[in-house]
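Dear colleague,

Following up on yesterday's call, I've attached the two folding results inline so they're easy to grep. Please treat them as preliminary; we haven't cross-checked anything against experimental data yet. The first protein's sequence and structure tokens come first.
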Amino acid sequence: MGIFKEKPIAGWAGILILIAAFLALYEPWGLGIRELFREEGLYAVQAAEYDLHSAVVTAHGVTSQTAFPLFPALVSLLFRLTGVPMEYALRLVSVIILGATAVLVYFAAASERSWRSGCVAAAMFLSSWLSVEKGTDGYPATTSAFLLLAAQLVFFQFGIRRNSWNQGWIFNLALLSLGFLAGGFPVLLFFVFPMFFFRRPLSVKSKFSKPGFAVGITLLAATVGFWLFSGWELSNRGAMLQEFLWQDNSFQDYLANVLMFPIELPLRLMPWTLIAWIPFCVALQALDETPIFSRYLRTLCFATLGLLWLLPENDPREIFFLLGPWSILVGIHYELAMRRYGFKIRRLLVIGEIFAFFCAALLLTVCFVPEAWLTPFISLGRSLAFREPQSYLLSAAAAAAVTAVLAMAIRHGRNSWPVWLILLLISVAGGLFYWNVMQPYRAQENDKRIFGETVAAALAREPAGKLYKSNILDLYGELYYSGTEVRRILELDELPTTEEVVYLISTEFPQYPDRSWVNLLAPDYSYRGHRLFLWKGTLRPAADN
């Protein structure tokens, strides 16, 4: 069939396309429309309580044994300096660092081959469904992945390539120290484990004898030690490590996760799954112009993939540890793959064309068809009331029009435009649907806000006092919205004896006779299937005790 040669586009045009795609896929102006989601509530409390002069992370006054300070510190700084809502601050930090990682990926691939390789690598990292779905959550995963990838690239650039091991050890272990402060022991594991699979992994004793290694490892050890002993209870160290190594799940759950991972991973990499295999094609490896760097990245990919697959109950966000090296590899091998397999790959792009047209049609349907016409065909947990504002209808109509234009562009260009550009346009089409339908629909969920406002309203009618929570492990996001200072206690004996009035949120009557208790919520008040009480506890006179 011959060699396929793509039509080149200018480097500046590729950069502008990536910037436009980033804005369309992540819509920084809309990051705060949803209330705190799942563990975002915990991270919000950690950031609100964080003391910038300490490495201790607390949540409701209790030291978080498995939390690390860098992400709460960044969010706290943004929140306090700019005054933006906490939801926005959490997610903006994640998105900014995701963009920074894409820049790092771009330069890593472009420095090896060309600007086109850099564009391919950055486009894959930015527009995989994993990034679009999970990268906009206010979690520390993107921060950890950025610092881990930076440490891995510095290790290769200064150590393996330049043979400047003193600089290499100092720089990469400094970055790894920051990575530990962002993601903890998993970051160290994902950095060290691939080393056992490098060529001659244990025959580099001279590399470890460099003064730079001693300096770097001292910095890392000091960082870990500072975290360990900054107000931490050493008796809880075993529980922390147990939580990292093994979750409280049965072997059946673990086996199910192992079996589902080969299905989950390709879905999370869509639509780049279409070309994600090319760095591992033996025929292309034989033509590789930078075999040492490619072999290094493949080792990182295989080792990281093995850990992700076999470690129990991993967070899907840890796939970011794999996505960076994999994206660089795809960018480096892209031009070779297109020359050899371009005709075959393009035949499959018709699926993307259909997907883009489907997104445009579905966007128009969901936004403008009466809700009563849709309910017989789809089950809606919430209404479609988000469609009512005129501003939303105008925005949705524009998004539908842009998605339809993208679908037609894919149809027109899938036989001549660069494959990476077509894949990026497919992701943008999906991203427009995600931001104009999925996000507004899910943003209607406001149970946590309502709960927090209910607690705040009840406390506003009472004398000032601290709010404590007992026998409840969660409710971080809910109580954050109450705007009240909260302290968690394990036993009622921990209630202060010097405060005349305290407030206690609990699931049962407090067996603490030194105070008289009055419930401030409705007697039948329940939240997500659990009955809850907000008790006002007033000290009894000494004669009554």
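Below is the second protein, in the same order (sequence, then structure):
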Amino acid sequence: MKSIFRKTDWLIFLFGFLLYANTFQHEFVLDDAIVFSENNFTKNGINGWRGIFSKDTFYGFFQQDGKEQLVAGGRYRPFSLATFALEVSLFGVQPTSGHIINALLYGLLGVILFECLVLLHMERGLSIAIALLFISHPLHTEVVANIKGRDEIFSLLFALLALYFFLLHLKKSSPKFLGWIGLFYFLSLLSKENSLTFIGIFPLTAWYIGEKEWKKVAVGIFPALIGIGIFLWIRAVVIGPIDLTPGMEWMNNPFLKIQDNVYVLMDVWERTALIMQSWIKYQQLLIFPFPLSHDYYPLALPMLRITHPIVIFSLLFHLALILLIVLLRSERKDFSFGMLFFWITFSMVSNVVFPIGTHLSERFMFMPSLGWIIAVTSIMRWWIPQSFHKVLLGIVLIAFATLTFARNMSWKTNYTLFSNDIQVVPNSAKLNNALGGILIEKSLEQEVNNEEYLNQALGYLGKAISIHPNYKNAHLLKGNANLYLGLFEQAVKDYNNALAIDPNYFEARNNLSVAYRDGGRYFGEREGNLDKAIEWLQLAAQVRADDYEVYRLLGVALGSKGNNGEAVQWFLKAVELEPNNGSAWYNLAIAYYNLGDLRQGASSMERAKQLDPSL
């Protein structure tokens, strides 16, 4: 691609790269843990490639069959994870290289986009404007500033490369381009499944440039179809049949509602109203991308009726867009091409074909926004006098670049991201829960004043539960905050609430045992209430039978009450759990002595001294 070295290409590349230079010192954020920093396959470097390509994308994080398919259909996106693993082999597990590479790829994406527009025979000024507006659009910050977003960058980058060679094939009728079409489209699919919709862009492009030889078009599309076939076959082997049945958990299915304290599916009108509301929200973010949020989970958008003015306006607005596509298909072909590009690539994330697990997400607009920018830029150049084109473009670029540069700073850490975005979507159950969790983590990092963070966490977690009463993770985290505050009875209540929702919730059961244990210790050592201490410690033993400290504390508490026979029994259980623990044998010896069994006491004391002479 000789033209890639043109001055315009370098300017576009540098613009995209430098726009995200203020992310280079950012940490791992959000889903970076799932695909990078805490993914066992990725952390194993290139030695993890086998696992990356042979398992669901989330498997390396969860390490449990079935649990990785928390969203309908599963996820098979190995290519970006393979590059993360390569980074680990070269640079170790750290975020700086990831952020720099994302910015480099984004700049390259801008160049490939511009070259495709040139091949489409778009007017040069229009091509430059589209490329710069796409690169600068603030809605793309989630994709570039979040290392995990590389799957989106690769998906569009490779799809555009496939389109570039498809256009060369149409222009020069050379079979040498066909292999590149199939290869790059296959890589796009390996990056993210959303690229499946891009198969519709090839014939759309042929229509746009006025290609009449549809046999040549079919030949150019055939390698891409082969790529789809190979991808779907590999995906089926790795993940199994695609099951798009929506779950009945609100965080994975936005089309649920509470009815008699049970979550049930919305009816068709309620679902349509929610979809129309999310669609008009996308249009607002594309036109005026401020303020932004990474999260739009329930109830970030209120549940409106089908007769609500916003819903009706959205329906009429989108019908008008479709009508304009038809009316302007000849006079303003650029607009029709762009809007059709938008609808084709938007279809998979529209919540119409199948539920995508959330109301909407800014990253879902990454590929569709290209079509939208083509359409809007085209029509604006038609409506606005030519003498104002450069002035308007300059104003919009400065505004977009400023918003993007500022938004990047929200992605510095999980705390900066969550605390900023909660101001934008205060009624998101997931975001309230996430911020509560981060505040608990921050409290553990503080030597003083950690109670302030914990109390803040309780406020956000309480709101998450008020929005989503069956949010088991929010109940768990609320229990953790109360446990750290020493509010043991409230912590026990929270953990039991989580277990009432999911009796097999391991984390809640384990933490319930800790709450009983630490509460028992507190009641015995701080309040001198041995009866309550023993009661709580026995409950801890019932919940979890392998906690040495519970048995030790029970032995101490019973011995303090003079119940030496029972104390011996609990100390014996402690010794069974940790037979090489000298202190365990020492405690058993003292209990035997108090019971009057001098022979067993001496034998246990001898064993304690053998294991730990300091005793």
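For the second protein, one point worth flagging: The chain has 29 helices and two strands.

Best wishes,
A.L.
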